[in-house]
């Protein structure tokens, strides 16, 4: 993937291009608007988060450098784990995109500002409060990273984002598990993007907070009548991934008519409605 590959992608008003950056990082191109969500384009976790029991080693390099993404309008972060709110990546993005707006959970505003990003460029997202943007609206939705967590003001500390465009909608769940009411919030969303790496006692013991299972992701897509299901968070770190073949097997066995797409790093996918 390179900058020209993204910029030269030609779309109609009924299309959106999705570019996969790894882990849960995506770039969305719609009309003249470019949106990044959870961009993790460094090795920050490898350098700063290893322990005696868990070694974080990227399975592949970032498909593009943050410094080459100098045409971004919005940068969204779902929560403060470093593979979603990466200091190295965000600092560079802020420098090469002086007019970009950063949208993060409200409690994370000060943390993101500490990365050298001016506070007047940061919007604190609050669940279910619509954020108007160029060419779309963004609806933050609570995310349960195993559990729902709220700050001292009652605002949710982890979020997913439902992006509402002219003709379709996309939900990026960040790191999340199921909770009552989530499928109702996502009813008839065209694309839902959710993690499938699951959770376990042993992962949690090693401070690896879990996500949806494959089964839960497939059933959620069916419950909310999603047109397409895109799995995430299964390929970057061997200590916290899952075999994507298991996802495909479960989907074909339990909901074979569900559209889905699995990405490789740097891939472009164009969705039409």
Ordered list of secondary-structure elements with their pairings:
Elements: H1 3-7, E1 15-22, E2 25-30, E3 33-37, H2 44-48, E4 74-76, H3 87-96, E5 101-105, H4 109-113, E6 122-125, E7 131-133, E8 136-142, E9 159-164, E10 169-172, H5 182-185, E11 191-195, H6 201-205, H7 214-223, E12 228-232, H8 244-254, E13 259-260, E14 268-272
Parallel strand pairs: 3-4, 4-5, 5-6, 10-11, 11-12, 12-13
Antiparallel strand pairs: 1-2, 1-14, 2-3, 7-8, 8-9, 9-10
Verbal overview:
- The chain is an alpha/beta fold.
- It has one domain: Ribonuclease Z/Hydroxyacylglutathione hydrolase-like (Metallo-beta-lactamase, Chain A, 4-Layer Sandwich).
- It is 20% helix and 25% strand.
- It has eight helices and 14 strands.
- The chain has helices at 3-7, 44-48, 87-96, 109-113, 182-185, 201-205, 214-223, 244-254, and strands spanning 15-22, 25-30, 33-37, 74-76, 101-105, 122-125, 131-133, 136-142, 159-164, 169-172, 191-195, 228-232, 259-260, 268-272.
- Strands 6-5-4-3-2-1-14 form a seven-stranded mixed β-sheet. Strands 7-8-9-10-11-12-13 form a seven-stranded mixed β-sheet, covered by helices on one side.
- Strand 1 (15-22) and strand 2 form a beta hairpin.
- The longest helix has 11 residues, at 244-254.
- It is globular and about 45 Å long.
Run of helices and strands: HEEEHEHEHEEEEEHEHHEHEE
Helix content: 10-25%
Q: Can you tell me the CATH class?
A: Alpha Beta
CATH architecture: 4-Layer Sandwich
Gap between N and C termini, in Å?
A: 25 Å
Instruction: Tell me what portion of residues adopts beta-strand conformation.
Output: 15-25%
CATH topology: Metallo-beta-lactamase, Chain A
Largest sheet: 7 strands, mixed
Instruction: Sum up the overall morphology in one term.
Output: globular
Structural class: alpha/beta
Poorly predicted runs are: none
Sheet with the most strands: spatial strand order = 6-5-4-3-2-1-14
Let me know the average pLDDT: 95
User: In total, how many domains does the architecture comprise?
Assistant: 1
The beta-strand count equals: 14
- Fourth CATH level, the homologous superfamily: Ribonuclease Z/Hydroxyacylglutathione hydrolase-like
- How many separate helices? 8
- Rounded to the nearest angstrom, the radius of gyration is 17 Å
